[in-house]
């Protein structure tokens, strides 16, 4: 029996934003932030606002903050501080790092991504391929929305430079078999390049245990500010030629891949966001999310078609569905009007939706995170049931 205690009301009391009359099932698009994150951002502006490298107190405070943000990111990702890279968001980091890595490749080299990916882990490769004459292949998805790893094995070749994949799907919630994918990539001599954006709020990341070479995530999906964070293995970051201005420092390693002045105030918020997660603990977060996910799945009304795994095994609590007789956009809008923040469309998961035959219609998406409650889930399900009548 788990000894973890989790008081959802005590957690919610830490978020002023959750006092609004809206049930937030839009976490996959960006979570709410606790007041301690908001306070940390304002405190930075009040007490430490400056650029780095100035010979005065606020600049020194900013330098200390950047170092703290790097060690916090390292703790969050399970790597060394010098292996962390901050950027505007995942997509911007992905375009920058794929370009950088690509400087070592030549025409005819091959990239493998997957049909489970958000386009932020597909289009950067397509654009690089367009410019360099590379080939991009996409791994198939089985009918249950898990990746077809037999297809990955068949597509790997001695020309494969990268296997890019999601840790969790932002559309249907499916988790990837990370160890297996990394092993297949490495056996073929390719880099394992992970998108952890959707997984970020749902569980611990450990880049060393997973064995990934590059991993990118976005703190605004895990209770922090609008920011992107990447891990790059030290020897890669040493070897890759960065796109950087000459006067910018070459240390720490990750900084070579950060262009211009960082969003210092958001780094302050990021440090607070990780502190917030650590104060609750992944065990409690996972147990609560799983219980709510099971409740959602068990009580799904009959007028709902769910896309993806039907139990909480192998998935996070992100649910894509449609409601009989109601157009996707109408369903989401009516839920929004009734006080439920849900998404609709393809959520940039273009290939998944195509594979599911949802290219035109899209689907409604409800994402559960640890600040959601059983009452919210029950109320959402009741509202969904009433949509068809
Ligand atoms: C799985 C996944 N990857 C990438 C992205 C893009 O992230 P960002 O908005 O930080 O560029 C998202 C955003 O929704 C996502 O869910």
Summarize the structure.
The chain is an alpha/beta fold and 389 residues long. The chain has helices spanning 8-12, 35-47, 57-77, 90-102, 123-132, 149-155, 178-187, 207-210, 234-239, 264-280, 282-298, 328-337, 350-355, 374-387; strands at 23-24, 84-87, 110-114, 135-139, 160-166, 191-195, 214-217, 228-232, 304-307, 318-323, 340-341, 343-345, 363-367. The structure holds pyridoxal-5'-phosphate.
3D structure, described in words:
The protein has 389 residues and is of the alpha/beta class. It has two domains: 8-30 and 281-387, Aspartate Aminotransferase, domain 1, CATH 3.90.1150.10; 38-277, Aspartate Aminotransferase, domain 2. It has 14 helices and 13 strands. It has helices at 8-12, 35-47, 57-77, 90-102, 123-132, 149-155, 178-187, 207-210, 234-239, 264-280, 282-298, 328-337, 350-355, 374-387; strands spanning 23-24, 84-87, 110-114, 135-139, 160-166, 191-195, 214-217, 228-232, 304-307, 318-323, 340-341, 343-345, 363-367. The strands form three sheets. Strands 2-8-7-6-5-3-4 form a seven-stranded mixed beta sheet, sandwiched between helices. β5 (160-166), α7 and β6 (191-195) form a beta-alpha-beta unit. α3 (57-77) packs across α10 (264-280) and α4 runs parallel beside α5 (123-132). The radius of gyration is 21 Å and the shape is globular. The protein starts with 7 loop residues before the first helix and ends with a helix. The relative contact order is 0.17. Bound molecules: pyridoxal-5'-phosphate. Pyridoxal-5'-phosphate (PLP) binds next to α4. The site of pyridoxal-5'-phosphate has 13 residues, from α4.
């Amino acid at each position: 029996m788990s000894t973890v205690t989790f008081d959802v009301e005590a957690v919610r009391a830490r978020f002023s934003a959750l006092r609004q009359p809206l049930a937030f099932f839009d976490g996959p698009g960006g979570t709410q932030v606790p007041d301690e994150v908001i306070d940390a951002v304002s405190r930075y502006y009040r007490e430490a606002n400056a650029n780095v490298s100035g010979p005065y107190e606020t600049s020194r405070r900013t330098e200390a903050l950047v170092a703290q943000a790097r060690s916090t990111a390292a703790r969050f990702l399970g790597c060394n501080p010098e292996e962390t890279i901050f950027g505007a968001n995942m997509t911007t980091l992905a375009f920058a790092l794929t370009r950088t890595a690509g400087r070592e490749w030549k025409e005819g080299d091959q990239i493998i991504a997957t049909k489970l990916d958000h386009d932020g882990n597909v289009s950067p490769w397509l654009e690089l391929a367009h410019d360099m004459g590379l080939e991009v292949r996409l791994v198939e998805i089985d009918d249950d929305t898990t990746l077809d790893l037999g297809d990955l094995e068949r597509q790997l070749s001695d020309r494969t430079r990268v296997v890019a994949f999601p840790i969790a799907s932002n559309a249907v919630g499916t988790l990837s078999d990370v160890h297996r994918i990394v092993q297949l990539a490495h056996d073929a001599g390719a880099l394992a390049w992970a998108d952890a954006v959707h997984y970020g709020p749902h569980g611990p990341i450990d880049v060393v245990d997973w064995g990934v070479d590059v991993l990118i995530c976005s703190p605004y999906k895990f209770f922090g500010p609008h920011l992107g964070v990447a891990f790059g293995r030290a020897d890669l970051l040493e070897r890759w030629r960065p796109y950087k201005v000459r006067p910018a420092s070459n240390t720490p390693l990750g900084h070579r891949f950060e262009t211009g002045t960082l969003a210092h105030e958001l780094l302050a918020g990021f440090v607070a966001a990780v502190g917030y997660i650590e104060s609750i603990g992944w065990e409690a977060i996972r147990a609560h999310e799983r219980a709510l996910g099971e409740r959602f799945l068990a009580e799904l009304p009959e007028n709902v078609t769910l896309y993806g795994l039907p139990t909480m095994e192998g998935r996070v609590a992100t649910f894509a569905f449609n409601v009989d007789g109601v157009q996707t956009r109408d369903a989401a809008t009516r839920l929004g009007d009734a006080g439920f923040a849900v998404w609709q469309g393809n959520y940039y998961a273009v290939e998944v939706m195509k594979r599911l035959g949802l290219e035109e219609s899209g689907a409604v998406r409800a994402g559960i995170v640890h600040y959601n409650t059983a009452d919210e889930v029950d109320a959402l399900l009741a509202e969904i049931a009433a949509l068809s009548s």
